[in-house]
Design goal:
This protein is mainly alpha-helical and 289 residues long. The protein has 13 helices and no strands. It has two domains: 115 residues, no CATH class; 124 residues, no CATH class. Helices cover 62% and strands 0% of the residues. The chain starts with a helix and ends in a 6-residue tail after the last helix. It comes from Serendipita indica (strain DSM 11827). This is RRP12 N-terminal HEAT domain-containing protein.
Length: 289
């Protein structure tokens, strides 16, 4: 059934997809409503407790989003998935908080969050795609909304959710547009600096092998995004040096091998992403190199 749904949706051309996205209320046709219902069903199946069903639904949704109708570069349904994801996270996180401390209560919210984050790691571009700004609300874009949720996830005290959140955040930074205009890049760097500040304050213990490797990956990615233009400057920002020194502490002999490897990868990313002033690298300035 999932395969059949996917084949139906994949066969639709732009002339049918766009009205499905844009028509609301009484203006919606029975066809557009049916199409939305089919796609909504597929999305819900990505959270199904049955692993095989969940996996297949995720593959079908990803396949649909990866093949937008000609001549579009981004599938119009990407924004629907992004908005739906934010809603699921908000509702599930509330359910997790309400069930905290209640013995014998099945935490469906935690399971839905785990399944959702696993699915979103396969489609991170839905939050950073060019048409994403259509999902702006009074609280900001879906990217900003999801980022806030992910940064708050460690408060739920579930190691897997924290790991998954950091992995998804890392993937957000990895899909940035290398040809973005300067004003867009400046806004992106400013947002990345805010994320970086929050991450630094949430630094895990060096012996926390469950969280530390994932935190190291995302803090390096955030720093690389926030200060990618530093190589043009005459000096390296103190924030970059602070992150470098903080990451370096995770090479301590008391840290697990996985943490050592993640720290080394993080330092390599920082060193190769333009975070340091080229002139200082050449002269050994600031007494750091």
């Amino acid at each position: 059934m999932i395969t059949i749904f996917g084949a139906i949706l994949a066969s639709l051309d732009q002339g049918m997809i766009q009205p499905t996205i844009m028509t609301l209320g009484s203006a919606a046709t029975s066809t557009s409503i049916s199409i939305r219902q089919i796609f909504s069903t597929l999305l819900e199946l990505t959270l199904d407790p049955r692993p095989k069903v969940r996996k297949r639904a995720g593959e079908v949704v990803k396949s649909i989003l990866d093949t937008p109708p000609f001549p579009l570069a981004v599938h119009p349904w990407s924004i629907l998935v992004a908005e739906w994801s934010c809603t699921v996270v908000a509702q599930s996180a509330d359910a997790v908080g309400q069930s905290a401390g209640k013995k014998g209560v099945a935490n469906n919210g935690t399971e839905r969050l785990i399944h959702l984050l696993a699915f979103l790691r396969t489609t991170p571009s839905i939050f950073t795609a060019p048409n994403e700004d259509r999902g702006k609300s009074s609280e900001g874009s879906t990217l900003e909304t999801m980022t806030r949720y992910l940064l708050a996830m460690p408060k739920l005290s579930n190691p897997y959710l924290t790991q998954a959140s950091y992995q998804l955040l890392t993937s957000f930074f990895s899909v940035e547009d290398e040809e973005e205009e300067e004003d867009v890049a400046e806004r992106r760097r400013a947002k990345s600096k805010n994320v970086l500040s929050t991450l630094v304050q949430a630094a895990p213990l060096k012996n926390d092998v469950q969280i530390a490797p994932y935190w190291l990956a995302v803090v390096a990615a955030a720093c690389a995004s926030a200060f990618s233009d530093t190589y043009k400057s005459s000096t390296t920002p103190k924030d970059v040096l602070d992150v470098w020194n903080l990451v370096w502490t995770y090479l301590d002999s008391s840290c697990a091998a996985a943490t050592h490897e993640a720290a080394a990868d993080a330092l390599m990313l920082l060193a190769s992403s333009g975070c340091f002033s080229t002139s200082e690298l050449q002269t050994g300035g600031n007494g750091f190199y």
